[in-house]
Design goal:
Layout (H helix, E strand, L loop, with lengths): L3 E2 L5 E2 L1 E5 L28 H13 L4 E5 L9 H9 L6 E6 L4 H11 L3 E5 L5 H8 L4 H14 L5 E6 L8 H10 L3 E6 L12 H8 L6 E3 L9 E4 L6 E5 L13 E4 L4 E3 L8 E2 L1 H5 L4 H13 L17 E3 L2 E3 L2 H6 L1
Parallel strand pairs: 3-4, 3-12, 4-5, 5-6, 6-7, 7-8, 8-11
Antiparallel strand pairs: 1-2, 9-10, 10-11, 12-13, 13-14, 15-16
Helix pairs in contact: 1-9, 2-3, 3-5
This protein binds S-adenosylmethionine (SAM) and iron/sulfur cluster.
């Protein structure tokens, strides 16, 4: 069986698992320079606990997993977890979203452990700007990591670009050009509200800009599970995708995912605070059938859509010592 049906007719077959809320970067649109209040280590699910949840979700029909964070590669022995999850009966795919900093070190090990493919977040091709956006990173390390992933056969490598007005929107054509001669799969993501401020560049604006490079032809995704829409420039080897949670009214109707936070909360929607606690039952030795029941409960409670554009940006914020901050992307797993 593939997919668990929700109450809106969607088939939920994809789980994003945040393995840690820790990160080795501090991207300006994701967290403050001081980082976010960290989840106590004792509350973070062990690999065995994650495996129990994934067995239950697979039983419920959710058979594709993406590991995320925080930065998933800062968690010790991640390839071990990949190996455990890829051997779960019925598992179709285990993939990873990473900032790429540690990718050179782990790409081959991850591939050998059963990882199918990798998405790398890269918002600029300029070294100085990369440092400004990530506050801590080196562009060369990430580009090197992308090459290592390709060499290891983690195919296709997709590049996630969050487009921010006045920060990197002047590089949209540079990213698009990369898809022409080389097999780059670049996805432009609308920025989610940070600190309550809803300011994103609609995909339609980017598509218009790309008109100068040729007519975008709709394309099937180069394998994938998400709600991105894909295109190709005439004669291009790679693809261009758009992830449009804010500008496209029907975006949520294609949502096929649940999210598991690093501390064991199963969230039907990134933008809603509703969640099902799995850590408590896991630590009380819940039977697999009970975990499966809780997974199906989360699927059934998945909301029809988010309400970010109506000004309801609070779900992406929490109050920390320093005031209101966006911590959900790194804590729940963006
Ligand atoms: N650290 C890994 C990374 O950066 O790829 C995985 C976790 S990160 C939270 C997952 C994705 O969320 C990244 O592609 C990142 O660019 C995206 N993201 C973070 N904050 C965002 C925001 N405010 N709007 C849109 N995307 C965001
Ligand atoms: Fe870390 Fe990813 Fe957030 Fe950047 S986007 S701070 S790499 S979790």
């Amino acid at each position: 069986m593939t997919g668990a049906p929700d109450s809106c007719g969607r088939s939920i077959n994809y789980l994003r698992v945040s393995v840690t809320d820790r990160c080795n970067l501090r991207c300006t649109y994701c967290m403050p320079s001081s980082g976010v209040p960290l989840i106590p280590r004792s509350n973070i699910l062990s690999y065995e606990e994650i495996l129990s949840v994934v067995r239950a979700t697979t039983e419920a029909g959710i058979n594709k997993i993406r590991l995320t964070g925080g930065e998933p590669l800062v968690r010790a022995a991640l390839p071990e977890l990949v190996g455990m999850l890829s051997q779960v009966p019925g598992m179709e795919e285990v993939s990873l979203t990473t900032n790429g900093v540690l990718l050179r070190r782990y790409a081959l090990e991850l591939k050998q452990a059963g990882l199918s493919r990798v998405n790398v977040s890269l918002d600029t091709l300029k070294a100085g700007r990369f440092r400004d956006i990530t506050r801590l990173g080196e562009l060369g390390t990430v580009l090197d990591g992308i090459e290592a992933a390709k060499d290891a056969g983690l195919h296709p490598v997709k590049i996630n670009v969050v487009v921010i007005r006045g920060v990197n929107d002047d590089e949209v054509l540079d990213f698009a050009r990369l898809t022409i001669d080389q097999e780059w799969h670049v996805r432009f993501i609308e920025r989610m509200p940070f600190n309550g401020e809803v300011d994103f560049i609609p995909a339609a604006e980017l598509q218009k800009l790309m008109g100068s490079l040729g007519k975008l032809e709709p394309r099937m995704p180069p394998t994938g599970n998400g709600p991105a829409a894909y295109y190709r420039l005439p004669g291009a080897t790679g693809t261009i995708g758009f992830i449009t949670p804010l500008s496209e009214p029907s975006f949520c109707s294609r949502c096929n995912r649940l999210r598991l936070s690093a501390d064991g909360r199963l969230r039907p929607c990134l933008m809603s605070d509703d969640e099902v606690d799995l850590r408590t039952p896991l630590r009380n030795n819940a039977q697999p059938s009970e975990l499966k029941r809780l997974v199906l409960e989360a699927v059934a409670s998945k909301p029809e859509r988010h309400h970010l554009k109506e000004g309801n940006a609070t779900p992406l914020e929490i109050r920390g010592a320093g005031g209101v901050i966006n911590s959900k992307m790194s804590q729940i797993g963006g």
